[in-house]
Amino acid sequence: MNGLSSKARERLLYLISPIGLIVIWQVLLMLGIGDRRFIPAPSDIAERFVKLTASGELEWHVAVTLYRVFLGYVIGAVPAVAVGLLMAMFKPVRVFFDPLIAALFPIPKIALMPLLLLAFGFGDASKVALVAIAVFFPVVINTYVGAANIEKIYWDVAKNYGASQSVMFRRIVFFGALPTIFAGLRIALAVSFIVLVASEFVATKSGIGYLIWNSWELLQVDVMFVGIVTIGVLGLITSVLFQEIERWAIPWKTE
Amino acid sequence: MAAERRGAAIDIVGLRKEYVSGAGRVVALDDIDLHVAPGEFVCIVGPSGCGKSTLLRILAGLAQETSGTIKVEAPGWAVENAMVFQESGLFPWMNVETNVGFGLSTRGVPAAEAAARVDAALKLVGLTKFRRHYPHQLSGGMRQRSAIARAFVTDPGMLLMDEPLAALDAQNRAILQAELLRIWEQTRKTVIYITHSIEEALLLGDRTVVMTAQPGRIKTIIDVPFPRPRDLMTLSASPEFGRLKLDIWRVLEDEVTRARAEEET
B160 with B244, same domain? Predict the structure, then answer.
């Protein structure tokens, strides 16, 4: 391990706990603890996984899910950042959005699914809209909190050095809030997978959520696990990717 | 030609600043009269809470006076003032060169000219090699140097400095004091410099303004007679330096004692 940089080692350590869990799981089932019909071993799941990928079925569901997550995430996060920053800078904006956010944030977003089905139909649009709505709240709240808590000295310096409103917005408030914005984006990433998979349980014939729900109806427990594991892996990959983006976007963040 | 250029003239008459705090009104500054000649270096000392920072913030346009007048004349200078803050106030998300150039970019100075001026300012404070570093990668002394460069680069008629070296260790402070004097002697900007240190005030300033606490008033203004260029080691060996230091200390001590007695009653 000596040849690795401390960063590479840290990233390697990131994989230890999930791998450890899988090994324990396999060993327990091989020892006969647990019923393999209901709880398949990792090897059974792997076998099913190979079959599903060979037919291209899994890839199709993954692609559909990723497409919906990505689109919904972007549609939700971009306006959330803008609104959060404007709320911190302008009191009227804050007064307008504060009660709306306070009232809508606690609603479980999945409860909106029937409404969105009415509004957007059974296609991708309703799922994308649900993800966008679910993503909007953590991002707007974090952005606002981050921008509102920028140390006073930075406002003073900017003002004393002739910053206009637009410079204040683009070069001070946005960057000052960026670490907190990223914290919100990270929460939103997890939230977007959660609500999307749940929404794919109904009224669709594609996506990982559909795969999981359909396999429950057919009692194909191993397929169900393939779906669950796939979601976990997708979550892990996007989270690692996200960390890389964060490192690149916030070079001044002290580790 | 540059040597002929002198900093801004400041004329403060009857300045008063009140603010509302909890139930009552607090008088932060009262009856401040101060005239500063072009190119003068004025130091302000006083007990904590004497409103000296408030005075500086009003001059910087970051706070509004309650009454009184302030006139600043800075003909021929690019900007009226630039402030150097105690905690540097460098933006953590900008590297040194972007931080230093900030006041130029906000004022629409053309990129090529701004780059040349930033180069010169970085050279002036000896940070050319660190131009791409972020503030968290710098020592406290380097951060204050960057902040000083950021102020000088805008070519202000007056520099407002709020205990800019207070957070530094003794060696770094001495080095930066000497650098500041050198830069000031080259540029002849007017400087208002707030400090806790009587020695620093005597080393740097042409005059030392001693303030009282609550309400902040000017107690006395002392002319600092030492010839320039000055150097702390030679200066502190002279009996005149010791005498002035003691005089100012006695005034301050009275003020601190009085303020404490009032707090306790």
Answer: yes
Give the orientation angle of helix A91-104 with respect to helix A57-89, to 10 degrees.
140
Are B110 and B124 within one domain? Answer: yes
From chain B, the residues in CB contact with A172 under 8 A are 91
Beta bridge partners, A54, equal none
Summarize chain B as % helix, strand, coil (round to 5): 40, 25, 30
Check residue A164 and give left, alpha or beta (phi > 0: left; psi -120 to 50: alpha): beta
**Mean pLDDT for the stretch of residues B221-227:** 93
Q: Which domain holds residue B131?
A: 91-154
Q: Are residues B44 and B123 in the same domain?
A: no
CATH superfamily label, A35-249? MetI-like (1.10.3720.10)
Is there a contact between B82 and A250 if contact means CB atoms under 8 Å apart?
no
Q: Do B147 and B130 belong to one domain?
A: yes
- Smallest Cβ–Cβ distance between A153 and the set B61, B81, B85 belongs to B85
Could you report the per-residue pLDDT of A93-123, keeping only the tens digit for each? 999 999 999 999 999 999 999 999 999 988 8
Is residue B167 a contact partner of residue B87, using CB atoms and an 8 Å limit?
A: yes
Do B28 and B124 share a domain, yes or no?
Answer: no
Sheet holding B67-73, edge to edge: B24-36, B9-21, B67-73
Is B205 found in the same domain as B232? Answer: yes
Q: Provide the shortest C-alpha distance from residue B92 to chain A (in Å).
A: 6
The pTM of the full predicted model, rounded to 2 decimals, is 0.83
Using a CB-CB cut-off of 8 Å, the residues of chain A touching B150 are: 161
ipTM of the complex, rounded to two decimals = 0.91
Please tell me the distance from the alpha carbon of residue B230 to that of residue B198, in angstroms, as a whole number.
15
